[in-house]
Structure formats: structure tokens, C-alpha cells
Amino acid sequence: MRARTQVRAALLALLLPAAAGCLAQDAAQDAAQDLPPAPDAEAAPMPPGTRNGLDVYARFREGLADPECPVDSSSVRWRQHFARAPERFGRADDDAFALFAYVVDALREASLPTEYALIPFVESGYRPGARGAGGPAGLWQMAGVTARAHGVPMRPGYDGRLSPVESTRAAVRYLKTLHGMFAGDWRLAAMAYNAGEYRVFGALRRAGQVARDADPAKLTSLSGITRAYVRKLHALSCLFDRADERDAWLRALDRPVPVLEAVELPAGTRDLARWAEAEGRDAATVRRLNPAFAGGRVPGHGKGPAKVLAPMRAVPAPEPPREVAVAADSGPAPATQAH
Is the pLDDT of residue 308 over 90? Predict the structure, then answer.
């Protein structure tokens, strides 16, 4: 129990930086002491197919390129705008946190900053079926032309922009390209995601800047929407780090979160709910996570196997092999007499 409590205190020290930008070690320890005792790790393991939400949160924090949170008038505005955003991640009945974890994993695997994991929050509120007024759709709010350019399949009965698997694969690959184009500056890459790389390159040229030491705030030839895009992402990052009533929020994250995985559907699959039930996965969740399949139907004219995002199947641990009891005084078996 003591070891578990010490681990919890160390985690809280990582997750609870002081609001002024400096971490007071004694304050973090006090906050940890205020929490109810954590259950012993051996007594309360996470159920199969889940992980602790605090682990997801720590993984996000560890991947931030710009964890500092200076206070200025613009950041205050956007923090107020998104003030209630962290509450969704604390709700066990919302898919947003599990989707966020899926995106964070994809970004960490691609060695990209986790600020990019907040793009779907700004774009769609982490709703896979979101559709914008001008035609963009999905978690990442991709326009049709952008989706096709990045290999996202779109055909009758299936819009890959509404697939968290297809859209996240394409978005992470595009962000990887932009990240390299702009010398690893996540702010410029995020602006380019919003406005297009050529507009950002043009703004740098007009401002006499180069990507490796740019000041995005001075790229005044870009639209106010594009320049505010970075401030929104940074404000969200700081909110998730310094949510109101942080102790209560962290307790809300301290729960099993479903691990989502991309699964190839077997050839001939036509009904998403039937497949989920046969696989031992929750059919309602599978349909909710995959609005790309209109009406839950799987069209049969695609190229290659269709993929769905689904909660990892909880496979029960195999029973240990039974041991055959042998009497101690049984001795060797009698030899069989030949006839």
C-alpha cells in the first residue's frame, strides 16, 4: 500500500504544476495527501482491455513540446472559451477520452508533439460524426479534397473522413510532413494544418522569417482565425494541465478507460452490429465510434479490407492446466503381459 501511495504522490507531482509556472514540491505533496488512499495495485488491477486514465493523461503531458503556460490576454480569452472542455474527459459515459488516448498513442508512435492531439477537440469536439457547415467532416474536419489527397477512401455508403481509423492515420501522416517542413515548430505546423502550408510559407517570406526561428505571432498576413488556432490549442493544453478543481478532475480520470484498436473486418462482413456481437464487443459502442459506415452497413465494393475502431476485446485469462494427482505409494504400473 505504501509503495502505491508513493507512486501516486510522484504522479501527482508531475501532473500538478503550480499555476504561476513553477512547481512547489511541498504543495504537490499536500495535494497528494488530500486524496483518499489509492487502492493497492495488486488488489484492484485494471480490467482486461482497459488502462488507467491517469496513465493516458501522463502520456499526453510527457509528449508536450511547449508545456509552459504564460498568462496573456489572448490565452485568458481562449481558456475561458474552453473552460468546460476538461469535464468531458472526466466523464466515463463519453467516448472522447478513449478517442483522445487513441490519438495520443498515434502521435507518440510518430514522435510528434501531443499538442496535435487537441486539434480534434478544436475541430470537432472529438465527435467522429461531426460535419462542418462548409463540408469538412469527422474528428479532424477534413475537406473532401484534402481527404482524397491523403488517401482517405470516400465512396457510396462509406465516408472515410468519419472513420477515426482512416482520418487519424491520414492526419498524423500529414502532420508529420508539416512538422518536418516547418523545422519541428508545432505552432507553424498547426497553422499550416488550418490554412495550408503554402499560405504559411508565404507569410514567413513576407515577414522576413524562416521556420527554424519564426515568431508565429508576427505572421500578420495570415488570417486572424489561423493565428488564433495556435492560441486555442495552447489554451486547451494549459486547461488540461490546470483544470479547475484539479483534484476532483484527476480522481475522475483515475478509472478504467477502454483501449481502442483498429480491427480489419473479415471479408463478407455486411453488418457492423452483428460483427461486434460475434466478436464479443459492445455493438452500440462500435457503431457510435464508426459513423463512416452509413446505417451500420458495410459496403462490399471497397478496395482492401475495411477497418473499424473498437474497444479491445477483454479476453479472459486462460485457466491453469490441471495437475493429475498421483498417489505416492502407487509405484510403477505393472507390465502388460504378452499373449
Answer: yes
Neighbours of 303 (CB within 10 A): 7
More reliable by pLDDT, 10 or 316:
316
Do 47 and 314 contact (CB within 8 A), yes or no? yes
C-alpha cell belonging to residue 178: 508539416
Q: Where are the alpha helices (DSSP H) in the chain?
A: 2-15, 25-34, 53-62, 73-81, 85-89, 96-109, 119-124, 144-149, 164-181, 186-195, 197-206, 224-241, 246-253, 272-279, 283-289
- Residue 209's alpha-carbon distances to 47, 165, 222, in angstroms, are 52, 36, 14
pLDDT digits (tens, 9 = 90+) for 69-97: 776 655 666 666 666 777 788 888 899 99
What is the rounded CA–CA span in Å between residue 90 and residue 235? Answer: 18
294 Cβ partners below 8 Å, 6+ apart? Answer: 157, 158, 159
Q: Residue 182: which of 164, 195, 165 has the closest Cα?
A: 195
Which of 218, 204, 252 has its CA nearest to residue 96?
Answer: 252
Span 51-255 CATH architecture: Orthogonal Bundle (1.10)
Q: What is the DSSP string of 32-78?
A: HHHSPPPPPTTTSPPPTTEEEHHHHHHHHHHT-S-------HHHHHH
Closest CA to 57 of 7, 11, 21: 11
CA angle 310, 128, 125 (to 5 degrees): 125
